[in-house]
Amino acid sequence: MPKVLIADKMSAAATQVFRQRGVDVDVITGLSKEELINIIPDYDGLAVRSTTRPDAEIIAAAKNLKVIGRAGIGVDNVDIKSATDRGVVVMNTPFGNAITTAEHAIAMLFSAARQIPAASARTQNGEWPKSDFKGVELFNKTLGIIGCGNIGALVAERALGLKMKVIAFDPYLTKERAVKLGVEKVELDALFQRADAITLHTPLVEGTKGIVSRERLGMTKKGVIIVNCARGGLVDEEALKDALDAGHVRAAALDVFAVEPAKAHPLFGTPNFIATPHLGASTLEAQENVAVQVAEQMADYLLTGAVSNALNTPSISAEEAPRLKPFVDLADKMGRMTGQLIHDPIKAVEFTYKGAVTDLNTNPITAAALAGLLKAAMPDVNMVSAPVLAKERGIEIKESYVDEAERAESLIRLAVETAKRKFVVVGTIYRGEPRIVRLFGVPMDAAFSPNMIYVRNADKPGFIGELGGVLGRNKVNIATFSLGRMKKDEEAVCLVSVDGPVPANLAEEIRAIDQVKIVDVVEM
Ligand SMILES: NC(=O)C1=CN([C@@H]2O[C@H](COP(=O)(O)OP(=O)(O)OC[C@H]3O[C@@H](n4cnc5c(N)ncnc54)[C@H](O)[C@@H]3O)[C@@H](O)[C@H]2O)C=CC1
Ligand SMILES: O=C(O)CCC(=O)C(=O)O
């Protein structure tokens, strides 16, 4: 039974889902990094929110880890590159807390416009400070949204309901989508110049770090309101404090900070400044949504291989997973076999899919074959890490599809190019079993087995008898023997499945047979 660790506070719904699905689960929150490193080798899955930060060291220690699930959207707390290199799927829950976070942004906007937190604190302090608080209306004002994805769009919808005018900057927002949302797509500087209030809804990436900079704050209208419920590093906090102190920015409301938890901060205590402790996603509904979703997704992956909302590997739906499985197995075997038969660095790999398999999402099949191919040199590679590792090594990958009229049979052709030559293997599924139908240009019909001997030999009489003799003298029992040749008297290829591991010196003895050109031992 797979075992998952929930390392951050999460709705109990996650634990229930894991247990109902047959996944063993421990909930241990508040672990130090060292404590997590000590226990992580026991787990197949790690579920987190934003407190736990699975970095390269934690991931390196996680010898059995297959999946990290983020109950939330932002994955800046997870070292995705390390996870990918180690073949760990990283998944998030992109929609479960979006409405809640959009509502928090709107709440922050109102709070800033009317200074509700300060007014509340002073009223409860017995001051009745009515004349100190004169807010501004949001009606008819221009809201500038930076990042118009899931949450940005929900904020836009709500702001339009408040009869605000909405302008948005997002390089990936199409004109059509902008029209559909009822927002005006603008350039970044124009947004800073025109907005009465600015709200941020982008991830923290190279292009967005410090997007609310001192220079851009200088472009804004006097009296602008700044709201950030996305990620801390988006705003130059020092510049924001200066702009608030100068009275240029009317009010600012931050839910997120460059360093969290922000227990002491230069902005704290600044007039017209509102802070919440990263509460954007903190509602009963959102926390239940993300907990259930992350547990379902992680259980799906650990139990069936279905992948949803992964950031580092292609999706495989629950419906697709069982249909893909035989082809993923076939591709893995073809890759592993070929990887053991080639002995030079791979330059390019070409996949050709024919027949009914072309109806499926072939990305996982390609990834499985690549992982198999690279395994001889990189034993820890898997479907998640293989495409990235192949790319890093400059291996060119091509895929093509032949949608043949005869669709009953599916064929996968794997062509691997090294500096010296091109190796081609073609495989199929026959009666549910993976089979090789062509090996290095030679037609054959062979099953995969745990121990195989591959021999390339001159097609001359006497070879089979001699090979049988060598195997017999070494007490190696032949399970199946598949033979094929291109043309009479030219080269032949044979694939022998044997019962049990091949003795160390056997390949040498076979190589000594006159007709033999190449011998390789293949283990599956
Ligand atoms: N405060 C909180 O508790 C929460 C914060 N968040 C954060 O909110 C942010 C947005 O989340 P979603 O809307 O779900 O993400 P999303 O991926 O749907 O939208 C992000 C948008 O940012 C845009 N973008 C990327 N680079 C940009 C750039 N340089 N300039 C402008 N736009 C750019 C993208 O095109 C995309 O449309 C994330 O950082 C997420 O972590 C999400 C949930 C809760
Ligand atoms: O889990 C949380 O409370 C934070 C949510 C968040 O920041 C996110 O989903 O990106």
UniProtKB/TrEMBL annotation:
<dbReference type="Pfam" id="PF19304">
    <property type="entry name" value="PGDH_inter"/>
</dbReference>
<dbReference type="InterPro" id="IPR029009">
    <property type="entry name" value="ASB_dom_sf"/>
</dbReference>
<comment type="pathway">
    <text>Amino-acid biosynthesis; L-serine biosynthesis; L-serine from 3-phospho-D-glycerate: step 1/3.</text>
</comment>
<dbReference type="Pfam" id="PF00389">
    <property type="entry name" value="2-Hacid_dh"/>
</dbReference>
<dbReference type="InterPro" id="IPR029753">
    <property type="entry name" value="D-isomer_DH_CS"/>
</dbReference>
<dbReference type="Pfam" id="PF01842">
    <property type="entry name" value="ACT"/>
</dbReference>
<dbReference type="InterPro" id="IPR036291">
    <property type="entry name" value="NAD(P)-bd_dom_sf"/>
</dbReference>
<keyword id="KW-0028">Amino-acid biosynthesis</keyword>
<dbReference type="InterPro" id="IPR029752">
    <property type="entry name" value="D-isomer_DH_CS1"/>
</dbReference>
<dbReference type="GO" id="GO:0004617">
    <property type="term" value="F:phosphoglycerate dehydrogenase activity"/>
</dbReference>
<dbReference type="Pfam" id="PF02826">
    <property type="entry name" value="2-Hacid_dh_C"/>
</dbReference>
<dbReference type="InterPro" id="IPR006140">
    <property type="entry name" value="D-isomer_DH_NAD-bd"/>
</dbReference>
<feature type="domain" description="ACT">
    <location>
        <begin position="452"/>
        <end position="524"/>
    </location>
</feature>
<comment type="similarity">
    <text>Belongs to the D-isomer specific 2-hydroxyacid dehydrogenase family.</text>
</comment>
<dbReference type="InterPro" id="IPR002912">
    <property type="entry name" value="ACT_dom"/>
</dbReference>
<comment type="function">
    <text>Catalyzes the reversible oxidation of 3-phospho-D-glycerate to 3-phosphonooxypyruvate, the first step of the phosphorylated L-serine biosynthesis pathway. Also catalyzes the reversible oxidation of 2-hydroxyglutarate to 2-oxoglutarate.</text>
</comment>
<dbReference type="InterPro" id="IPR006139">
    <property type="entry name" value="D-isomer_2_OHA_DH_cat_dom"/>
</dbReference>
<keyword id="KW-0520">NAD</keyword>
<dbReference type="InterPro" id="IPR045626">
    <property type="entry name" value="PGDH_ASB_dom"/>
</dbReference>
<keyword id="KW-0718">Serine biosynthesis</keyword>
<dbReference type="GO" id="GO:0051287">
    <property type="term" value="F:NAD binding"/>
</dbReference>
<dbReference type="GO" id="GO:0006564">
    <property type="term" value="P:L-serine biosynthetic process"/>
</dbReference>
<protein>
    <recommendedName>
        <fullName>D-3-phosphoglycerate dehydrogenase</fullName>
        <ecNumber>1.1.1.95</ecNumber>
    </recommendedName>
</protein>
<dbReference type="InterPro" id="IPR045865">
    <property type="entry name" value="ACT-like_dom_sf"/>
</dbReference>
<dbReference type="InterPro" id="IPR006236">
    <property type="entry name" value="PGDH"/>
</dbReference>
<keyword id="KW-0560">Oxidoreductase</keyword>
